[in-house]
Amino acid sequence: MQYRETLPLGPREVVLTFDDGPLPPYSSRVLDALAAECVKATYFLVGSMARAHPELVRRIAVDGHTIGTHSQNHPFTFHNMSRARAEREISGGIASVSAALHGLKPAPFFRIPGLLRASSVEAYLASRGLITWSADVPSDDWRRISDTEIVRRTIARLEAHNGGMVLLHDIRPATALALPKLLRELKARGFRIVHVVPAGGPVVTTATAPGQWAVRAASRKPSVKRATRTRLAERRVKTVRSASLWQREAARRRASARMAVIREENPGPRRGLFDFSRRIPE
Ligand SMILES: [Zn+2]
Question: Does any domain span residue 2?
Fold first, then answer.
């Protein structure tokens, strides 16, 4: 919704993203609904929530979803906080999620709470190799609307965009209720849910054929008509903005080399990738 770059999605391809969790019982219901349809999503977890519900963080990982972070405490002030505080929020969120995963690092994906972007924060994220995510399609599920209305608005907006990245919140009762209906409706309308993973991460060791998950290069001239976009953070670094064309191209390639879109049909759970069973529970 904010950036000129977006994921290299094809027509009617959809990426599901869930912010602010995990929180029982809603996150569990959302995970159940995703598992029932063999669909993979991307999570942006809040550090304090991960500390409170580490078992849910591990379930998200074991179920094969991508885990990014969304700060430690979810302040709605990223657009005007000091860089030092932003760094603490970002690092704290990653440390908390990593602790829940017994030391495994989450994906280098970050979504700013409230999408309240600031150049200094984006530059810091880029300097740490973290990719800033926005969204294409809001579901409005934070506006306390009904599950039926969440489905209606999301589908209407996805139809208007012919696909895109959907922003949802797995801590909302209405979202948990809406999800099975939303997934059925997406299927019936011929949308295809694809899964975004960090390039080179553990998921690429699954049996998927490389042709199915390779990144397609993003358009060099992104259409301004498309309302939105997740953007690869590197492109916003101040130095890149004034850099020569070849430097911009190099930055673009570095960023797109760090994400992959998985398009396999019915991948099923990727159990075994993260085996926490032999660890001592917290
Ligand atoms: Zn949020």
Answer: no
